Amino acid sequence: MKAVHFGAGNIGRGFVGLLLHRGGYEVVFSDVAGALVDAINAVESYTVHEVGPGGVDTVVTGFRALNSAADPDAVAAEVATADVVTTAVGPTVLKFVAPLVLAGLRRRDPALPPLQIMACENAIGATDLLRVEIVGLAGEEWDASRAVFANTAVDRIVPAQPADAGVDVTVEPFFEWAIERRPFGEHPPVIPGAHFVDDLAPYIERKLYTVNTGHAATAYFGALAGFDEISDALGDPAIHARVAAALEETSELLAQRHGLDPAELAEYRATILERFRNPALADTVWRVGRQPMRKLSRHERFIGPAAAAAELGLEVDALVGAVGAALSFDDPADAQSVELQRLLHTTDAAELTGTLTSLDSEHPLFPLVQAQVAARQATLA
Ligand SMILES: NC(=O)c1ccc[n+]([C@@H]2O[C@H](COP(=O)([O-])OP(=O)(O)OC[C@H]3O[C@@H](n4cnc5c(N)ncnc54)[C@H](O)[C@@H]3O)[C@@H](O)[C@H]2O)c1
Ligand SMILES: O=P(O)(O)OC[C@@H](O)[C@@H](O)[C@H](O)[C@H](O)CO
């Protein structure tokens, strides 16, 4: 069995590649970073180090890597004969992966089973997004019987890796991978430890609106207070209280929307905050806060739950406070952070609120976010 995995970065090697290897797939990593591709091809194995309570080391073998920027044709040839395609490139990069997957499908022997495609990104409906890109490129030639698409929710914290780590990856021991079951019919992919579910919505929303809302809130409050590391930021009682309050608001929404048990949600929140506090993980506010404009967009970790909660008349003060902290995220190395700070200097508060969140000005959340934008602009004047 063979899997082609796009994005040989932190989660690609430290989670998706690892579980595909455990499932018995040969893993062909495809990446645009030439030095990373060379480094992967220079070794016969790499080690995933789990740090924290119960952590173990796992040696991964049976992989190779291709440079999709230098040799897209080779990638298409691998896709043509693969069983599974996965991605972990970031939601905004899926449109660049789509042409390669389509090129592989065009070359695929019609006698082969449908290609099983799963995008493993932090976004609701990421695989749907990839499917729309592929189908759009194919136009009238699209043959829906050649591929199956399943949305997934992946959870494991994999920080940026030290420069001297080679292709080894340090990760937390915890992981969760929920995958839509129905698209696969009787033939799901072999991924030990993953669970297949009929309705992914509660899983992806619980994950994105708890793990990622809490993580990003910690990063933005932490950066504002001068912390570099997530574990240190959460050690600050004032930041802990603000993050916990934001997660109580998202839990209330999840309980109402999906009927999730409040006591189980409280336990889930506690586990997650404990994961963030893992001192062995060396995760930074800069990685976790990366791409703040993506994180402030309509269906993402802040505006997604806050908009839905506001529509239901639920509390959103803590989430709105976290949005305010996100507006202060100022990392010269992050293109979206630079653009956000530029827009704050140049754009009227109401217009910028609409640009960032895509909320209608009549939406009950709109004036609350606009007030945060105006307050941030007042500090810059
Ligand atoms: N790191 C985590 O803790 C974690 C956990 C769950 C989900 N995710 C999600 O996984 C995705 C990747 O995150 P990451 O932390 O591994 O980032 P990363 O930057 O470590 O890895 C992304 C990789 O994608 C590669 N890439 C960029 N453009 C590409 C292209 N066109 N084709 C092939 N490869 C390309 C990059 O070179 C890089 O190696 C994101 O959507 C993220 O939200 C990350
Ligand atoms: O990858 P992002 O930028 O969407 O979010 C940053 C982190 O919150 C994220 O990578 C988490 O570590 C991960 O989602 C944990 O499962």
Verbal overview:
By secondary structure, this protein is α/β, with parallel strands linked by helices. 49% of the residues lie in helices and 14% in strands. The chain has a 6-stranded parallel beta sheet, sandwiched between helices. A 3-stranded mixed beta sheet has the order 4-3-10, with helices on one face. It has a 3-stranded mixed beta sheet with strand order 9-11-12, with helices on one face. It starts with a strand and ends with a helix. The structure holds nicotinamide-adenine-dinucleotide and D-Mannitol-1-phosphate. D-Mannitol-1-phosphate (44H) binds next to helix 6.
Topology, pairings included?
Layout: E1 2-6, H1 10-22, E2 26-31, H2 34-41, E3 45-50, E4 57-61, E5 63-67, H3 72-80, E6 84-87, H4 94-107, E7 115-119, H5 126-138, E8 147-149, E9 152-155, E10 169-171, E11 176-180, E12 195-197, H6 201-224, H7 230-235, H8 237-258, H9 262-276, H10 285-288, H11 292-295, H12 303-311, H13 317-326, H14 335-346, H15 349-357, H16 366-380
Parallel strand pairs: 1-2, 1-6, 2-5, 3-10, 6-7, 7-8, 11-12
Antiparallel strand pairs: 3-4, 9-11
Helix pairs in contact: 3-4, 4-5, 6-8, 6-9, 6-13, 8-9, 8-12, 8-13, 13-16, 15-16
Domain Mannitol dehydrogenase C-terminal: 199-340
Keywords: NAD, Oxidoreductase
GO cellular component, one term: cytosol
